[in-house]
Amino acid sequence: MNIVKPIYVTKPAIPSKSEYYKEISTIFDQDILTNNGPEVQKLSHLLARYLGVRNVSLFVNGHAALVVALMSLGLKGEVITTPFTFASTTHAIVQCGLTPVFCDIQSDDCTMDPTKIEALITDKTCAIVPVHVFGNPCDTEAIEAIAKKHHLKVIYDAAHAFGVRYHDQPIGQYGDVSMFSFHATKVF
After folding, report:
1. Could you tell me the pTM of the whole model?
2. What is the overall mean pLDDT for the chain?
3. Active site residue 5
4. pLDDT at residue number 80
5. Domain ranges of the chain
6. What is the pLDDT of residue 188?
7. Residue 188 to residue 186: CA distance in whole angstroms
8. Torsion angle of alpha carbons 160, 172, 77, 87, nearest 10°?
9. Between 17-30 and 38-51, two packed helices, what is the crossing angle to 10 degrees?
10. pLDDT tens-digit profile of 25-55?
11. Looking at 11, 42, 124, 186, which residue is catalytic?
12. CATH number of 62-179: 3.40.640.10, 3.40.50.1860, 1.10.260.40, 3.20.20.70?
């Protein structure tokens, strides 16, 4: 009988069992799995340093992070975003009682086309949620100039941009909030 071995598009790089057990043994010794325990604090500190940002909050997934980011800014009305993203970006906007307004993308890097944003702004627009796609950063200068001009918040969906730098600055330093992802399909 021939056993066919599957071919995976992505495969995680994982340590050996002994390395893994050694690393997680401190968690079992502390009896604290979450709730801002020592390992969570350590990870938050290391991530803040790696990402070049002051504050890091860890969430179960990117969707939850986007929801909290949107809610924390007290937004009401319309949010300009891109349809060229995972559905969760739009779902988070809708879940917060906001109305998504879709902006087209640039064909060369698949990020939001900043030349098309202003035509979408109305008196109901409260924020812009651009998406850094496949590690390609958005044109943050143009987006943030538009946001400043119209008094809008900018929340970057940076799920695909973990560790990316733009103009020699960490990508997480742009906008009011940036959300990153550890999902297995992200490359970092």
Report:
1. 0.86
2. 92
3. no
4. 98
5. 17-51, 62-179
6. 59
7. 6
8. 10
9. 120
10. 888 888 877 778 888 899 999 999 999 999 9
11. 186
12. 3.40.640.10
